[in-house]
Each structure stands twice: as C-alpha cells, then as structure tokens.
Design the sequence.
C-alpha cells in the first residue's frame, strides 16, 4: 500500500500543487477588459481564511456612454460565494433586486460612483469569512460597454488558517503510509528476531 503511493508521480505532483496553492498564499490576476458589454464578468476566485485581503488596482476605466447622469452605482466589483450567488440570482428572478450590487448577500468592493470622474482606483478589501469567493465585475448599465485594466491580488495574512490545508491532508495520508509500512516492517523484524532468539536458546 505504502509503496503504491510512493510510486505514483501524479500523486507527488498533486501534493506539490496543493502545497503551492496553500502555502503560496496569493492569487494575482491581470485582466484587460476591452469594450465589454457582459453584465457579469468573473475576474478570479480564491479561498480566503479569516484574515483575507483583496487588493484591487484598476486603471484606464472608460465607459462607452459618457452621459454624466449615468447611474454609476450600477457598475462595480463585488465578492460573492458560489452559494450566495445562487440566492442573488433568485432575488433577481423574483424582482427583489434589479442589480446584483444592490443585494445584501454580496460584498460590494467598489462601485463606480466612487470614481468621481477619475479613470483609475486602488482599494483594499478585508475578508473575515473562511470561504471561497469569486471576484466579479457587475455592469447593470443598459447598453454601456466598459474597458479597463484590472489587477487583483487575493491572499491571506495567516497562511496556516487557509482552509486549503484540508485539501493536502488526503495525499498526505497516502504519504504517511510508507511510515506505517516501515513501522509494521520494524515490528515484524522484531518478532522474527525474538523467534530466532528463542529458537537459538532452546
Ligand atoms: C459593445 O460591445 C458589443 C459586443 O462586443 C459590440 O457589438 C458593440 O458594438 C459595443 N458597443 C459600443 C458602443 O462599443
Ligand atoms: C494596489 O492597491 C493597493 C491598495 O491601495 C496598494 O497598496 C498597492 O500598492 C497597489 N499596487 C499596485 C501595483 O499599484
């Protein structure tokens, strides 16, 4: 059993990949969005701990509609768990919210009202719930295309609280089994040794 696990390179790879994810601590994503009319643009995903941080640096923001009376509260970035997102869609279907940014189930990171005429912004958002979150850009403006350069960095201040540590336990168990194998082998050699001793004494 133990040898079986050691002999599998794919499992080794899996272990190292998991290590990289859980001890790398950070996920950085650069996205160049050009004249995009999608109402929802997923940017990136990350499993936060209780000490999560999102750094968002957005530049070169332009909207295809330059109307100064545009309701910019209808465009912006939010963080949402996949579960909560299902309820947000439900709220939308039942007409409880007209824009995901208005839902009380999401964490609004930045809405475009705060731009106040600027074309770039930097912000930091704290996450205190150990959950997997998706960073999403929401555009509820009708027939307005958006262009921008997005840099997002998601990380946890304390990596040890990172829940993906749970994910490395599985291959870890497999890597423990050579140890168990050696202990069993040791016990077996000890028993043989005892038998040999008993036999030679008699
Ligand atoms: C908005 O994007 C759509 C789809 O990419 C495109 O067909 C349309 O021409 C764009 N509109 C403007 C005003 O840029
Ligand atoms: C991104 O924004 C954060 C928060 O304001 C700032 O600390 C950081 O230096 C910025 N990074 C870049 C590459 O501009």
Sequence:
């Amino acid at each position: 059993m133990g040898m079986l696990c050691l002999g599998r390179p794919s499992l080794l790879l899996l272990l190292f990949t998991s290590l990289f994810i859980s001890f790398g601590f950070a996920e950085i994503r650069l996205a160049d969005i050009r004249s995009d009319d999608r109402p929802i643009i997923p940017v990136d995903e990350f499993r936060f701990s209780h000490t999560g941080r999102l750094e968002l640096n957005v530049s070169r923001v332009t909207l295809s509609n330059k109307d100064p009376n545009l309701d910019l509260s209808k465009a912006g970035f939010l963080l949402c768990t996949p579960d909560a997102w299902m309820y947000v869609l439900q709220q939308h279907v039942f007409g409880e919210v007209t824009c995901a940014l208005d839902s009380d189930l999401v964490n609004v990171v930045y809405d475009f009202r705060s731009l106040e005429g600027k074309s770039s912004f930097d912000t930091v958002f704290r996450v205190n719930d150990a959950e997997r979150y998706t960073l999403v850009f929401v555009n509820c403006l009708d027939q307005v295309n958006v262009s921008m350069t997005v840099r997002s960095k998601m990380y946890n201040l304390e990596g040890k609280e990172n829940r993906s540590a749970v994910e490395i336990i599985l291959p870890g168990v497999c890597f423990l089994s050579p140890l168990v194998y050696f202990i069993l082998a040791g016990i077996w050699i000890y028993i043989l040794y005892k038998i040999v001793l008993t036999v030679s004494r008699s």
In short: Strands lie at 26-36, 40-47, 52-63, 75-80, 107-111, 121-127, 132-139, 146-156. Residues 35, 37, 64, 145 surround 2-acetamido-2-deoxy-beta-D-glucopyranose (ligand 1) (CB under 6 Å). Residues 127 and 147 are 27 Å apart (CA to CA). The mean pLDDT is 79.
